[in-house]
Amino acid sequence: MLPKNRPPTRPGEMLLKEFLQPGEVTQTELARHLHWPYARLNEIINGKRGITPDSALALGEALRTGPEFWLNLQRDWDLWHSLRGHRPVPPLKIPSRPKVSA
User: Fold this and answer.
1) Cα separation of 16 and 28, whole Å?
2) Cα separation of 84 and 2, whole Å?
3) How far apart are CA 47 and CA 51, in angstroms?
4) Three-state SS for 24?
5) Cβ–Cβ under 8 Å, residues 70 and 56
6) Cα–Cα distance between 60 and 19 in angstroms, integer?
7) Which residues fall within 8 angstroms of residue 29, CB to CB, at 6 or more apart?
8) How far apart, in Å, do the first and last CA atoms of the chain sit?
9) For 87, phi and psi rounded to 5 degrees?
10) What is the value of pTM for the model shown?
11) Average pLDDT over residues 74-94
């Protein structure tokens, strides 16, 4: 469920505050471990890059969380921000069709 009064936690913020800082792991150390350029990890942490399925797989394996954890964080972040400017669309009325018997 999305929070109503605040944005959900960014994946990069979660990565930094719940994994790297408590484990005293630097961004450089994690980037090397993942075989990523430092910039890729730093952009995720600073909210300048989103979590892709490839990123989610790597983070999920390295941090033992599973990829769904990271993809769900990204999905919630994206959806919350999309809802801010969303104009509701009325439901499409589809005429009922006669049932075909076999």
Assistant:
1) 12
2) 12
3) 10
4) coil
5) yes
6) 12
7) none
8) 42
9) -100, 120
10) 0.84
11) 93
